[in-house]
Amino acid sequence: xxxxxxxxxxxxxxxxxxxxxxxxxxxxxxxxxxxxxxxxxxxxxxxxxxxxxxxxxxxxxxxxxxxxxxxxxxxxxxxxxxxxxxxxxxxxxxxxxxxxxxxxxxxxxxxxxxxxxxxxxxxxxxxxxxxxxxxxxxxxxxxxxxxxxxxxxxxxxxxxxxxxxxxxxxxxxxxxxxxxxxxxxxxxxxxxxxxxxxxxxxxxxxxxxxxxxxxxxxxxxxxxxxxxxxxxxxxxxxxxxxxxxxxxxxxxxxxxxxxxxxxxxxxxxxxxxxxxxxxxxxxxxxxxxxxxxxxxxxxxxxxxxxxxxxxxxxxxxxxxxxxxxxxxxxxxxxxxxxxxxxxxxxxxxxxxxxxxxxxxxxxxxxxxxxxxxxxxxxxxxxxxxxxxxxxxxxxxxxxxxxxxxxxxxxxxxxxxxxxxxxxxxxxxxxxxxxxxxxxxxxxxxxxxxxxxxxxxxxxxxxxxxxxxxxxxxxxxxxxxxxxxxxxxxxxxxxxxxxxxxxxxxxxxxxxxxxxxxxxxxxxxxxxxxxxxxxxxxxxxxxxxxxxxxxxxxxxxxxxxxxxxxxxxxxxxxxxxxxxxxxxxxxxxxxxxxxxxxxxxxxxxxxxxxxxxxxxxxxxxxxxxxxxxxxxxxxxxxxxxxxxxxxxxxxxxxxxxxxxxxxxxxxx
Length: 667
Prior knowledge:
Elements: H1 4-25, E1 45-64, E2 68-89, E3 94-105, E4 113-118, E5 123-142, E6 145-163, E7 171-191, E8 194-211, E9 217-233, E10 256-269, E11 287-303, E12 306-317, E13 339-356, E14 361-364, E15 373-376, E16 379-387, H2 409-412, E17 427-435, E18 439-446, E19 465-477, E20 480-495, H3 498-507, H4 513-519, E21 522-536, E22 541-550, E23 564-574, E24 579-592, H5 595-602, E25 620-632, E26 635-645, E27 656-666
Helix pairs in contact: 3-4, 3-5
């Protein structure tokens, strides 16, 4: 079942893309009222969709380590997943259907734990990788409302762990729980081709057990209750239903919009020179890893200028060497949590209020994080909630999205901008923006982690946190549009000093530098700036560049081990060679370290992403080029090559060639 969510997501987007392409070719706008009475809604046909909810239950555990014991333990987590199904509506309005679904736990470390037990010698636990079911549905359809009962076969995969292990650390084994599921729900048509649902499910997963190499045994059964909300797309919904709504678009409606994407990346490198390596080093033998994300982005118009956005995502995969080994890491989709199976993330959930100041208006196109409509050019916008700093700051038209353009961390972002985030690159904050025709000013405050590179945020507001300000100047150069962004930032967070850690190791030769820097942690401030420019040369050719710097005295908070970075490149559309929807990109980056930072790594310290045990310092240099092929409308296949000299700022290792293939679909 490892690939079930991936297959479901591609089924979802394949169906959506086909309809989106047809809609693009022949725009259709149906009247708001039709003559006569429209027929009742026909629920017959296939559907695909996603769901989020909360699951809570009990694990009944039998553990022998070494004495037998039995106990019960509560479990609970936010969950998200995908479903695909088929309905058949009888003339009596009774409905018969079948559905396959898979749900995944939240991305936080403890949310996938079904149970755990600590003894004098070991820690034993079971984690839930996924829960799935094949269910029948029986219901009655009241035109646009469906009431149904559901039940069928259910299974889940448990990951049993014991630490310390005899063979690995920890020893682990996968086991499948099988059982059954019952539930009920209600589903309603909310727009042409779209239905929303609310449902309750009870899952009973039978006993599964394992014997560890140590001789200890563990087993458990699970009872789980879940309440879920879901959104389904019906690709063959009746055309007559469009007359009931003001807008017949597949993704844009009067008060809400929906967009989706899925991205799969396979990346690897061949063997390279490496006389030595450390804990955070790319291993010198060939390696390949993959990442996958699938997500939806929903916007809801609450009032005049007020909007609510929600971005549920499933994240899976590993960066090369568990996302360590280079400061300019080669895969922008590689998060730092390394999920063997998909995990759910509420990646964005924020409110945005726009206050128009009158005068000239401009049209906003529908897209990720933006609803279509007109708004005043002169305006004030306030945004608060969960989102990424790079949604608002340090954006660039040509190098901004590793799902669509450049993939290297120090090319799609300002490498020395240590923006606050959790381990998957997201955070909480508030931003205010004043926009005028030729310029914009943005200021923001964001929570920082309780320590570097964690998912927990410091709630000492104002006293701790990150402040960011950006001035954007729009200009014309030989009648071609350009933008210059100047940003300054300061993070106050719990962190250690490179210089103090080195001094401690000189006083205590047996003290590891990585342990020493933990001993120096207290509230400290890191500050820096970035310069970001984009320039259109023609309708099909654009240039970009970034320069960024930070003081380099304290530990990196969340991004990467870079204290200065210069990147530049070009993006070219394929019109000149008869492929107007293809795109070619070429870029380079040079990344450096402060003196204190390089001395810490040379002494054997570890950073967030790098640490070879020693260091022959040189600037890290990267060349990246990609070619993106428009396969069909909304589906892009990209081939990416990166050449890295002095990986992790170390001249003793490398160079390394990275080869990547990226498949991206969106609607």
